[in-house]
């Protein structure tokens, strides 16, 4: 069906100056990799309405690049319909050694004014969604699932994108529910139910040359259930000098979260080398819930670029084993505590 999808795209994108829709009706369809490429003739968004279930090819040799469905060079596209993209990733996960390049289920590259809503994505081989080099991206009412032990099945990874709103979605995967990578500015993510998985993350940052700053990212009104991490910022121990600033985690509920609040500037390094990513103006506000860990706050900041302006306000976390000491682990971090906090204070 891959060729049929691309032929239909030519009709709605390249040959119609009027508002047009590509409809995938109810039913089950097998598809090889698909490229939906613009620019399109119409000044109105092209609608891709998926009502059925699309199944990915299980054979990894069918994927020459890092995607299954690619939307590229488009100004205005709406992906919706209530249908399902099934990446059939179980056959691939056993080959994922951390260094291989597996296909993301749905990738948006160089897309302006893209909207994704009312869809399901299950069992991706790699990321479920990857949005990169884009602007004004909106997603809502998504249901994203993969087993808790499936590798690198991030629900949504966003990089090099300005103007992001992701909301009111349920994500349960084997990796980050949502991860915000380098070059993201002005992102508002709210109403996410996450778990199981690795929580919600800024990063990883500082891995590659030419990365750009992260600025103006807010996660709010999110619930994390039985996740490995809660809210995390992670940077590689590398000489790459970028900034991550003006980040807010607010109105977050954590239920049985192992590592609720983490800044890890030694990510991917066993030798604890210094990261040169500068983290500043990070706000943790009205975070509440439970954790099995007696170290609810870990701020492992870099000696080469210490964290500045780390604020805790009304952070209340209950430890499941009250007879054990509740502590914070903080290095190279300048912190302030205000409001009513029920967590250990960084000394």
From TrEMBL:
GO terms for molecular function: polygalacturonase activity. It holds the Pfam family Glyco_hydro_28. It comes from the Eukaryota. It is found in: Secreted, Cell wall. Signal peptide: none annotated. GO terms for biological process: carbohydrate metabolic process; cell wall organization. The active site is at residue 198. Keywords: Cell wall, Cell wall biogenesis/degradation, Glycosidase, Hydrolase, Secreted. Belongs to the glycosyl hydrolase 28 family. This is Exopolygalacturonase. It comes from Linum tenue.
């Amino acid at each position: 069906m891959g060729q049929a999808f691309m032929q239909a795209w030519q009709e709605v994108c390249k040959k119609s100056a009027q508002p047009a829709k590509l409809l995938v009706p109810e039913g089950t369809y097998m598809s090889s990799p698909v490229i939906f490429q613009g620019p399109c003739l119409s000044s109105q968004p092209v609608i891709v309405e998926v009502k059925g279930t699309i199944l990915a090819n299980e054979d990894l040799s069918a994927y020459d690049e890092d995607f299954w469905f690619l939307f590229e060079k488009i100004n205005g596209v709406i992906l919706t319909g209530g249908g399902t993209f099934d990446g059939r990733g179980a056959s691939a996960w056993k080959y994922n050694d951390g260094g291989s390049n597996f296909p993301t289920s749905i990738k948006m590259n160089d897309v302006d004014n893209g909207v994704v809503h009312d869809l399901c994505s299950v069992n991706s081989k790699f990321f479920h969604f990857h949005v990169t080099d884009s602007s004004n991206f909106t997603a809502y009412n998504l249901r994203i699932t993969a087993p808790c032990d499936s590798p690198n099945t991030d629900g949504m990874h966003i990089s090099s994108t300005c103007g992001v709103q992701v909301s009111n979605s349920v994500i349960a995967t084997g990796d980050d529910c949502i991860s915000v990578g380098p070059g993201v500015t002005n992102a508002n993510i709210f109403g996410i139910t996450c778990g199981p998985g690795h929580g919600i993350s800024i990063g990883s940052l500082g891995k590659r040359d030419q990365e750009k700053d992260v600025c103006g990212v807010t996660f709010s009104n999110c619930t994390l259930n039985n996740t490995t991490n809660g809210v995390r910022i992670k940077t590689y121990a590398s000489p790459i000098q970028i900034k991550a600033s003006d980040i807010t985690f607010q109105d977050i509920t954590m239920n049985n979260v192992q590592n609720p609040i983490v800044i890890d500037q030694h990510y991917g390094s066993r030798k604890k080398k210094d990261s040169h990513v500068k983290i500043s103006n990070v706000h943790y506000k009205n975070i509440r819930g439970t954790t099995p860990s007696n170290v609810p706050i870990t701020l492992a900041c870099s000696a080469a670029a210490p964290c500045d302006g780390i604020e805790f306000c009304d952070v209340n976390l209950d430890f499941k084993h009250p007879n054990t000491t509740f502590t914070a682990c903080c290095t190279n971090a300048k912190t302030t505590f205000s409001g009513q906090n029920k967590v250990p204070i960084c000394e």
